């Protein structure tokens, strides 16, 4: 499926006929600008991690215990875990293992480079398995490939971080006959910080539609127990996250059957969480790990309860999309943006990729909460940008259910910059309605870093 296949006019027609379209953002992360399905009329989903972990205990011959992650389990007819000789396999390439006796042994592999982690794991496992190893301990930078350990054909494969890897390596170097034992995995919840944006989750900005902030939302997509044919397996990807969002859409639609696709999307985006249950900002797995921004997770991590009662919604008449996009049926149906910037759409986000002069955009919100309500604005301006909202307070009652406000966005510097992020929040005692903002200050028509 090409990058544009989900942006066909058929998706637009579906939305214009009251059908919500939810699409996976792709698994090309953590590189930026690799998103799929970025048309404004779809909900584009990123993948996040949940608080379930699979700790696997490694016991060394000196009784030191270390914890890794694995999906290793023993069958009923298998004997208990026992110690095996532990050997250092370097990076476990064919060259590194040449001349090393690994048959019946547990092999430590340390991967210091970063590339296709799934392929690295598959290559390493193939090399140690063909040599008859009884177990694999693979040290590498934090990634989201735990599900790959299910393919280890009955032998324990444990993922550890680089720090623990060097502890094991130090033990091997200090012993004449190093040994190790790997216990079967246990499943634990609530002991790791979550959510986090997954390493593989594709990141924005959108190449095709940079005036549309994408992705829209993040949802659980790592180590999800999913049905495959007649079995259940753990699987990861934005294709695992997307059904979570589709399910939330269905639940909200059941609560509010009259709501439009745009209203449903707005409720999900504006109620999303940007912090975990401990109040810690959500992180994004990357190189290095960082605090997540809207190009990682859009509005944030999905919050179903909040989406069911968002307070305010940013609604769009689906015919409005035709004013901003020209869709033609050709060999591939491509929708091209018109001369009118798409950040003027009434989206629950603002993205301005070329801010050179003061710019004004309008947004309209509809009160779907208590009839009598007052909302005040809270602005977090992106670095180098001044944002002002008029009016700063919105008052709703039985006769005034809809308000339009203006957002003035002014660059403070005259530089060739990069994206910076902020937010606009409408709040009262019952609701917090937040939209993300992404702005890039420019002075020329190029964006690459220049020496």
The gist of it:
The protein is α/β, with parallel strands linked by helices and 451 residues long. Helix content is 18%, strand content 31%. It contains 9 helices and 28 strands.
Describe this entry's structure for a reader.
The chain has 451 residues and is an alpha/beta fold. It folds into 2 domains: 273 residues, Immunoglobulin-like, CATH 2.60.40; 134 residues, Glucose Oxidase, domain 1. It has 9 helices and 28 strands. The protein is elongated, with a radius of gyration of 25 Å. About 1% of the residues have low confidence. Pfam families: fn3_6, Peptidase_S8. GO terms for molecular function: serine-type endopeptidase activity. This is Subtilisin-like protease SBT3.5.
Topology of helices and strands:
Elements: H1 9-16, E1 22-24, E2 43-49, E3 52-53, E4 55-60, E5 65-69, E6 84-88, H2 94-97, E7 106-110, H3 117-130, E8 135-139, E9 157-160, H4 162-174, E10 179-182, E11 188-189, E12 196-197, E13 217-220, E14 224-228, E15 231-235, H5 238-255, H6 261-270, E16 283-284, E17 290-291, H7 294-297, H8 304-308, E18 312-313, H9 321-324, E19 325-328, E20 334-337, E21 350-355, E22 359-367, E23 373-380, E24 385-390, E25 393-396, E26 402-411, E27 419-427, E28 432-441
Parallel strand pairs: 1-2, 2-13, 6-7, 7-8, 8-9, 12-16, 21-28
Antiparallel strand pairs: 2-12, 3-11, 4-5, 4-10, 6-10, 14-15, 16-17, 18-22, 19-20, 22-26, 23-25, 23-27, 24-26, 27-28
Notable characteristics:
Glucose Oxidase, domain 1, 9 helices, seven-stranded mixed sheet, 451 residues, Immunoglobulin-like, alpha/beta
Count of the domains: 2
CATH architecture of the largest domain: Sandwich
Give the amount of beta strand, in percent.
25-35%
| Topology-level CATH name of the largest domain | Immunoglobulin-like
Rg is 25 Å
Poorly predicted runs of 5 or more residues: 329-333
Distance between the termini: 38 Å
């Amino acid at each position: 499926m090409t990058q544009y296949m989900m942006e066909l006019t058929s998706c637009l027609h579906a939305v214009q006929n009251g059908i919500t379209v939810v699409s996976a953002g792709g698994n090309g992360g953590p590189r930026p600008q690799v998103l799929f399905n970025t048309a404004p009329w779809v909900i584009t989903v990123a993948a996040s991690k949940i608080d379930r972990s699979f700790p696997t205990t490694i016991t060394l011959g000196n009784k030191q215990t270390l914890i890794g992650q694995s999906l290793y389990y023993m069958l009923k007819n298998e004997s208990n875990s026992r110690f095996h000789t532990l050997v250092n396999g370097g990076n476990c390439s064919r060259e590194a293992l040449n001349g090393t006796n690994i048959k019946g042994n547990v092999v430590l592999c340390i991967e210091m480079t970063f590339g296709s982690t799934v392929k690295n794991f598959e290559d390493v496992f193939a090399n140690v398995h063909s040599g008859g190893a009884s177990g694999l301990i693979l040290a590498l930078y934090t990634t989201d490939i735990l599900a790959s350990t299910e393919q280890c054909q009955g032998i324990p494969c444990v993922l550890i971080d680089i720090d623990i890897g060097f502890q094991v390596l130090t033990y091997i170097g200090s012993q004449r006959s190093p040994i190790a034992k790997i216990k079967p995995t246990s499943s634990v919840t609530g002991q790791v910080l979550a959510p986090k944006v997954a390493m593989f989750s594709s990141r924005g900005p959108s190449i095709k539609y940079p005036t549309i902030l994408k992705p829209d939302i993040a949802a659980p997509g790592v180590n999800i127990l999913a049905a495959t044919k007649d079995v259940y397996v753990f699987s990861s990807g934005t294709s695992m996250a997307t059904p979570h969002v589709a399910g939330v859409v269905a639940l909200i639609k059941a609560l509010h059957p009259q709501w439009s696709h745009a209203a449903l999307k707005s409720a999900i985006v504006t109620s999303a969480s940007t912090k975990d249950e401990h109040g810690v900002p959500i992180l994004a797995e990357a190189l290095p790990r960082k605090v997540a921004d809207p190009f990682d997770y859009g509005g944030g991590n999905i919050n179903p309860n909040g989406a069911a009662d968002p307070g305010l919604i940013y609604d769009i008449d689906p015919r409005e999309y035709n004013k901003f996009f020209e869709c033609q049926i050709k060999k591939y149906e491509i929708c091209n943006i018109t001369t009118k910037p798409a950040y003027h759409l009434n989206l629950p986000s603002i993205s301005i990729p070329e801010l050179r002069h003061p710019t004004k955009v309008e947004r309209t919100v509809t009160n779907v909460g208590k009839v009598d309500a007052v909302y005040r604005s809270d602005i977090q301006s992106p670095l180098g940008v001044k944002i002002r909202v008029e009016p700063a307070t919105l008052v709703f009652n039985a006769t005034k259910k809809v308000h339009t406000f203006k957002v003035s966005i002014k660059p403070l510097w005259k530089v060739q910059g990069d994206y910076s992020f902020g937010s606009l929040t409408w709040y009262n005692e019952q609701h917090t309605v937040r939209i993300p903002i992404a702005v890039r200050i420019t002075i020329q028509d190029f964006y690459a870093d220049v020496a």
